[in-house]
What we know:
The complex is a heterodimer of chains A (169) and B (187).
Chain A lengths: L1 H13 L5 H15 L5 H13 L6 H40 L4 H26 L8 H13 L5 H14 L1
Chain B lengths: L15 H14 L5 H11 L5 H13 L4 H44 L3 H26 L6 H16 L4 H17 L4
Amino acid sequence: MIPKLAFYFALLSLVSVGGIPSVMPEMQRVAVEVEGWMSAAEFTQVFAVAQAAPGPNVLVTALVGWKVAGIAGGLVALAAFCVPAAALSYSVGGLWDRMRDAPWRKAIQRALVPITVGFVASGGYVLATPAGLDWRAAIAAASAAAIAATRINPLWFLASGGAAGYFLF
Amino acid sequence: MTREPCQDAPRPPSGLWELYLGFLAIGARSFGGVLPWAHRVLVEERRWIAPADFAEVLALCQFLPGPNVGNVSIVLGRRWFGPAGSAAAFLGLMALPLVWVFALALLYAGHAASPGVRAVVTGVGIAGGGLFIGTAWKLARPLAKKPWALALAAACLGALAFGRISLFFVLPVAALAGFAAARRDLL
């Protein structure tokens, strides 16, 4: 299972334009629908644990790997996801700066905004509806409105979501 | 530009250990999102980099694949100390959160049989999904008067969330369509 994890997360690394939120729909599709590593509810719970820890949200890859093949699986998934993208950042960092005024760079930047919007919204929808669209989507709607309208630390919205999950369950 | 030493000019870290500790501090404090803490530590507290410079680096790192702030650590580490700098900054950023997340996961695994615990954690995850939706909403605000951009975003959402089509198909198609539209000034 570990070579499969490494291969899959390395591939995912290269299409993770916009970061982890963009690849959540694909990660969930593969983990839940294609490979059957876990249920949709378990995937949302794993994501929740990663959100509750400090640090970059890329840690969710370590938890998906951990769920599949223990701590070793977690470290392999995290490394496989980080290394290809890091190598790319390392090599193109300078080039991108030199091409600041190139028309193709501006076209790519403009094209990526709506694509990222669609990807991130998809990630949110997939995570918020582990059992299809039900009453719990109200929790997601509330936290979406809160983050869009305020500058409060999002940890408070996660904590409120946990409380709502408990009392409304 | 002045040649005199300026007190307000940002000064890069003096060594690998200082760089590592700076990113360790970001990782240790970044509950609820790492980006605000990266800005606070790098720009405001340690003053390693000027605000405008940080914004440029961040824009690049949001465009590149991979974790955004992870990429920031790679790019800045490289700028200051080459490959060793990239490694020091990245490992500093990840070290403490990785311990945290595994500790939380083991704690949760020990209590996952309890329906109450599962309900709380599921609620947290659903709220986290909502944060993504809210973030997408914020990112979409500048697109409000660009119908082609909104159509592209909606097509991506439909394909991924409702069609459950693979990202490895959706990304190349969307990127080509977006690039063509951007070259015609539609986005």
